[in-house]
Amino acid sequence: MKTTIKNTLLPVLISTLAATSAFAESRDSTGFIHEFKFGVLQHDVDNLWSGFEREDGLDVNLEVILKPYVDFLGGQVRPAVGGSFNNAGDTSKIYVDARWEKALSANAYFSLGLGAAVHDEDRETAERDRKELGSQILFHFPIELGYRFDKHHGLSVYFDHISNAYLISPNEGMDSLGVRYGYTF
Predict the structure, then answer these.
(1) Is 174 left (phi over 0), alpha (psi -120 to 50) or beta?
(2) 50 CB contacts (<8 Å, ≥6 apart)?
(3) Whole-Å CA distances, 169 to 50, 110, 174
(4) Within 13 Å of residue 70, how many CA atoms lie on the same side as its CB?
(5) 133 Cβ partners below 8 Å, 6+ apart?
(6) What is the assigned CATH class of domain 2-184?
(7) How far apart are CA 27 and CA 49, in angstroms?
(8) Residue 115 pLDDT > 80
């Protein structure tokens, strides 16, 4: 499965994001893309939700947040599709989320999500430098705090966690933390 995500799905995801971004830009306010995000995340960060790290490297994170939304608890819930691709050959993932975003001020926002991720590593391993995630399909929990400089450009601090929520053993989980640039259409 590792070669599938990195060698096949990464180019497909990048091509899809580029095509949908171009389509959204050409249609402006009537397109179906709300925001495109790109970032660099530290992979498998120590002492966060998962508690420990085993894997290395940085993740390149790409994400599209779609325009359809539902008002909920003073914010908006939108679908998000993305992926994080590790530069050291460790775990990469693609994901789909429901993302709730709430404005904190005219420019600042907070975002929380829940979704599913598919990763490219073995579920169980004897290798000491790999996480045992227990399932190929995992829960994806993102948290983001951001600031929009104007109508289109923003930066954020982004955290995400993947695990099987102790539905299957093992469940070592994995955390990523970094910064992302967002372009709102």
Answers:
(1) beta
(2) 44, 131, 161, 163, 172, 173, 174, 175
(3) 14, 32, 14
(4) 7
(5) 91, 119, 121, 123, 162, 163, 164, 170, 171, 172, 173, 174
(6) mainly beta
(7) 40
(8) yes
Residue in 160, 170, 162 with CA at minimum distance from that of residue 62: 160
Task: Give the separation between CA 152 and CA 89, rounded to whole angstroms.
Answer: 33
- Parse the chain into domains and list their residue ranges: 2-184
**How far is residue 89's CA from residue 5's CA, in Å, rounded to a whole number?**
11
**DSSP structural state of residue 30:** G
Mean pLDDT of 1-30: 53
- β-strand 137-148 against 153-163: which pairing, if any? antiparallel
Cα angle 182-144-141, degrees, rounded to a multiple of 5: 120
Q: Output the pLDDT for position 27.
A: 44
Cα angle, residue 86 at apex, residues 81 and 91 outer, rounded to 5°: 85
Q: What is the mean pLDDT of the chain?
A: 87
- Is the Cβ–Cβ distance between 156 and 178 less than 8 Å? no
Residue 30: pLDDT band with limits 50, 70, 90? low
- Helices (H) and strands (E) counted in the chain, each on its own, are 2, 9
**62 Cβ partners below 8 Å, 6+ apart?**
13, 14, 17, 37, 38, 82, 83, 85
